[in-house]
Specification:
Keywords: ATP-binding, Cell cycle, Cell division, Nucleotide-binding. This protein is of the alpha/beta class. Helix content is 38%, strand content 19%. The strands form three sheets. Strands 8-7-16-15-14-9-13-12-10-11 form a ten-stranded mixed beta sheet. A four-stranded antiparallel beta sheet has the order 3-4-6-5. Helix 2 packs across helix 3, helix 3 crosses helix 4 and helix 10 packs parallel to helix 12. The relative contact order is 0.12.
Length: 462
């Protein structure tokens, strides 16, 4: 049988391209059909209405537009402008990923299957490699690809057989240091469902709910984990002062992080043995609150001085779950699991911070409902913290530079779209901590005359 020494005809190649890109093919056909069937006036009116509606959405509700429409429009634009066929083909050939077809003499290159732009600074390129090419070949050429793509950081992983993902990060959207959370004037101004942490890469306030949730902050030494603790404390300062929020602190850095802020806390520990006592008492209080709510025939608590929101903060959690004495770690893991599975209803929350999120270090990792990942030392830490596939989608936490200019920068997951969003925590200085301690110390006397937390029941309920 003779070998075929010519390519498919142009019409067949065009038909194949059209089949792979139905949107680009179907849209002109639909417009042409509309003009013929409905007339140019009707078609133009419909298009103008759609454009006006989109512009109104863009201007009137930026948050939802950036969450839903923005990524789709941005992906389309970059696919057909930045990564259009000839540009992509030239890039692959320049980086030596092209290969001559021995039968036809045509230069073949890996095919760009899809472009997904999760945010203004992150593109994920899904690429179908040629037969005989490997993931290692692309990883070995990471420097060349990064330069060709003009990327500040580049991640290369296998998605499925024959498909790899190039995650391209460009620029630093946080050129300025973010100010810390402001201390509200009054406890009625505290919103426990949206505590300020910093800003996202769109320039919007980054907030997280602490009521009804457990928060995990992961980051290497010097990544800015302290800001994940002090910003929410400042944001709910007046509620702490008025006895509506009670915070227990386990500072397992020997007291270096929070020792100077002891007046803020209901209970405090700076050694594992004492920390186990604090966690045990926290669990016992949760059980007592459960019994109280049961007697009152209530399924959910309301934030008040009688049933305050209880928050347990643990810095360097690994000392309580893996790195400490085994008799302590076993008890601590069991207590934390009990608290985190039962704490939502009675209003008991856990906020923990550590450097390594592996299952060996943190067996109860999956019980944290809100997770933030700052700079890490291993590429798999992003997926361990934020969820499977988050690094492919753009959470290149191991590529964040280890310097002061990038402290506090990391990723969180949007709860609606499940996409990683780049964020930066507000920079909290020692002076900011001193201000919080000075203005919002925890009460040391009876606070029964304090007005309960002034919010609607549905917002206050855990």
């Amino acid at each position: 049988m003779a070998l075929v020494n010519r390519r498919k005809g142009m019409e067949w190649r065009a038909a194949s391209w059209m089949a792979r890109h139905p949107g680009m093919t179907g849209t002109p056909a639909a417009l042409a059909t509309s003009v013929v069937e409905l007339g140019p006036v009707t078609t133009g009116t419909v298009l103008a209405g759609v454009g006006a509606a989109g512009l109104s959405w863009y201007r009137g509700h930026p948050e939802t537009f950036d969450r839903y429409a923005g990524p789709a429009l941005r992906s389309f634009r970059r696919r057909w402008l930045r990564y259009v066929g000839r540009r992509w083909r030239g890039l692959m050939i320049d980086c030596e990923f092209g290969r001559e077809n021995r039968r036809t003499g045509h230069i073949e290159v890996p095919r760009l299957v899809r472009v997904h732009s999760a945010s203004p600074s992150i593109d994920t390129l899904y690429v179908k490699v040629l037969r005989g090419q490997s993931l290692k070949k692309f990883q070995d050429a990471a420097d060349e690809l990064s330069m060709a793509l003009r990327a500040d950081a580049l991640g290369i992983v296998k998605v499925k057989p024959g498909i790899i993902a190039l995650t391209v990060v460009r620029g630093n959207p946080f050129e300025q240091v973010i100010d810390p959370a402001e201390i509200p004037a009054d406890s009625s101004d505290v919103d426990l469902s949206a505590l300020y942490f910093g800003e996202d890469e769109y320039g919007n306030d980054w907030t997280e709910p602490i009521i009804g949730n457990h928060l995990l902050g992961v980051g290497a030494t010097g990544s800015g984990k302290g800001s994940l603790m002090w910003n929410p404390l400042r944001a709910m300062g007046p509620a702490i002062r008025d006895g509506l929020v009670r915070v227990d602190m386990c500072d397992l850095k020997g007291g270096m992080e929070a020792g100077s802020a002891r007046p803020l806390f209901n209970d405090y520990a700076d050694e594992p043995e004492r920390a186990l006592e604090v966690i045990t008492a926290f669990r016992d209080d949760m059980k007592a609150t459960q019994r109280h709510l049961k007697e009152e025939r209530l399924r959910k608590f309301r934030v008040s001085t009688e049933t305050p929101l209880r928050v347990l903060m643990i810095d360097e959690l690994a000392m309580m779950t893996a790195l400490g004495d085994s008799s302590i770690t076993r008890k601590a893991v069991k207590l934390l699991a009990e608290i985190m599975t039962q704490g939502r209803g009675p209003g008991f929350a856990v906020c923990a911070y550590l450097q390594e999120p592996t299952k060996d270090i943190l067996p109860v990792r999956d019980l944290f409902t809100r997770r933030i990942c700052l700079r890490t030392t291993a590429e798999n830490h992003a997926d361990m913290t934020l969820g499977d596939g988050m690094r492919v989608k753009g959470a290149l936490t191991d590529e964040i530079p280890a310097d002061e200019d990038h402290a506090g920068i990391g990723f969180r997951v949007d709860q609606y779209t499940r996409r990683p969003i780049r964020v930066r925590a507000g920079n909290v200085t020692d002076e900011d901590i001193d201000e919080l301690v000075r203005t919002c110390p925890a009460p040391t006397e009876d606070t029964s005359n304090v007005v309960p937390f002034n919010r609607d029941e549905d917002e206050d309920a855990a």
